[in-house]
Amino acid sequence: MATITTGVLLFRWPLLSAVLMFLASTLNIRFRKSDYIGLAVISSTLGVAAACWFATGLLGINMVEVDAIWGNMKVLMVEIMSQTPPDWPMVIT
Q1: Which of 16, 26, 75, 85 is the most buried (most CB within 10 A)?
Q2: What pLDDT, in 10s, does the model give residues 28-43?
């Protein structure tokens, strides 16, 4: 039974991530009302992570593509930084 449940949850990740976003939002509201700011920040972070997971899944982005995007961003940033002037950023004293 646990195998079937796990398979359904993993197969239906949009539903799982939507439930995670809802729970994180609900917990965030309750923690803020109870003045548990640290736990509210943690639940907000989990909600944002679930939202990103949901969005990347809808867009069809998997970890291989994330790795390629990250590598391209690193190459782009090195290229941009190599073209900046040597005195940039200027230090104001």
Answers
A1: 16
A2: 888 888 888 888 888 8
Contact 24, 46 (CB under 8 A): yes
CB environment 49-82: b (16+ within 10 A), e (fewer):
ebbebbeeeeeeeeeeeeeeeeeeeeeeeeeeee
- Residue found under tokens 């796990």: 6
CA 93 to chain centre: 38
Q: Residues 60-83: pLDDT tens digits?
A: 777 788 888 889 999 999 998 888
List phi, psi (to 5°) of 84: -80, 150
